[in-house]
Amino acid sequence: MNKLLTLVIAVVVAMPVVGVAAPRKNVQDVRVTFSKAVEKAEPAVVNIYAARVNTNVPKTGLQNMPAVDGRMQERIARSLGSGVIVRSSGVVVTNLHVIDGAQAIKVVLSDGREFSAKKVGQDEKLDLAILQIYRSSNEALPAAKFGNSDNLAVGDVVLAIGNPYGIGQSVSFGIVSAVERSAMQLSPYARFIQTDASINPGNSGGALVDSTGALVGINAGIFSKSGASNGIGFAIPASLVERVVNDITTKGTVVRPWFGAEGQMVTEMSAREAGLQRAQGVQIASVLPGSPAMRAGLQAGDIILSLDGNAIENPADLNEQILAMPNLLNKDAKLVYWRGGKRIDTTVTLTALPDRKTGSQLLIKGYNPMNSVKVEELGPALAAELKLPMGTKGVVAIDVPGAPALEAFSMPVEYGDLIMAINGSTIRTVGDVQQALESSRKEWSFRLLRGGKVVNIQTR
User: How many CB atoms lie within 10 A of CB 206?
Assistant: First the structure.
């Protein structure tokens, strides 16, 4: 028995274990460490400082009156976040919300070196931004190695590296709590890695690495009522991040397939009514004319069961499958749906999302409250960008001055407002907007869709 025990201990001690330091005197002295993984990954994780300059006219007690000296004041708003160098040439990935609207971006490496950077591309759907560091030489920068996030399993050890609260580069330890987790507040287009590794403000855009130091995710957000880590953090899988980086660095933009249909969760009741044995799939609510979904024969009421051989359980599944299928662009994908109590097998040819209708843009001019506002007629691309229902039609304000162009008015619209009516006239085209504004010289009424709510505004 003693010989057997001695043999087992000897075998355990001799086994190569990743991240375990060499034994000192006996088994009880074994020290578990992930210092090698940190040493490998940390140099590629950077701190990002973004500055936004907001110009305001200081006011006295009288509205629209400048301060005594009449000078403009600049308020510099700074945001703090993290990022990861993914190419030795200085390509950095971070969250879009970290640098959105920034006039100046500074990147600080873990060794203290500082660089200026510029944004070269973004992906609003995944809240990702790609930066390029300005370098004075061709010196290679430390770059992270992408890992296989598709192979992550619940219970795997992960490390979050970033700059929480601006205190400096820090590492937190945890496990993968869940995979393919839906987090609609962050993005309806992806399934996230959930971890209990501490992620706090300032960690956004930082690295989530596995026990070997490979990059498996970009930290994106937390679930918290206090604003601090409660052990529920979310990271964008590296498989999606790598595709975005490749698209932006090679094509300048992210090109994805477009389906052209919107749906809803199948309930137990709707499943029984359709003749399905259980609630599954996505029931189509609307199909956009001319879209791949319509060309494939889909109609409202159909229930999508699978796409390209992958089961569809809910709308998030459908969004993610389309998002993660750039290789199927302009190619046939297998589509299985349910209609009239029968399973139907067909194919759908996924095409790129149509470009925005830039030809339908109009810069409003004249003596009216919307002077200098740019508007655009809605199409699928703009509707997707503004997170409006796919089939929404009308005109949207896409460029709004920071202050009214004419001091006689207050600005009635905000960026992203859907203009439903002006002075009682229904707005369908940009021409309708200009015509309606010319119908009055004294007062104007606006009916807008803002943040999902109808807003009525009057100005004179």
Answer: 33
Q: List the catalytic residues.
A: 97, 127, 204
Second CATH level (architecture) for the domain 149-251: Beta Barrel (2.40)
Q: Are the CB atoms for 408 and 449 separated by under 8 Å?
A: no
Could you tell me the pLDDT band of residue 66, with boundaries at 50, 70 and 90? very low
Q: What is the 3-state secondary structure (H, E, C) of 168-201?
A: CCEEEEEEEEEEEEEECCCEEEEEEEEECCCCCC
**Which of the four CATH numbers 2.40.10.10, 3.40.190.80, 1.10.260.40, 2.40.30.110 does domain 41-133 have?**
2.40.10.10
Cα 222 from Cα 227, distance rounded (Å):
8
- Kindly report the CATH number that applies to the domain delimited by 257-352: 2.30.42.10
Give the CA distances from residue 435 to residues 150, 167, 320, 360, in Å, rounded to whole numbers and listed in that order.
54, 55, 42, 15
Q: Is the pLDDT of residue 75 over 60?
A: no
Q: Quote the tokens at residue 389.
A: 């229902």
Name which of 91, 331, 401 is nearest 215 in CA terms.
Answer: 91
pLDDT of residue 316: 76
Tens-digit pLDDT profile for residues 137-193: 888 899 999 999 989 999 999 999 998 887 888 899 999 998 877 665 666 566 789
The CA distance from 41 to 207, in Å, is: 8
pLDDT at 302 over 60: yes
Count the neighbouring beta carbons within 10 Å of the beta carbon of residue 90.
20
Beta strands of 238-281 (E only): which ranges? 257-258, 261-265
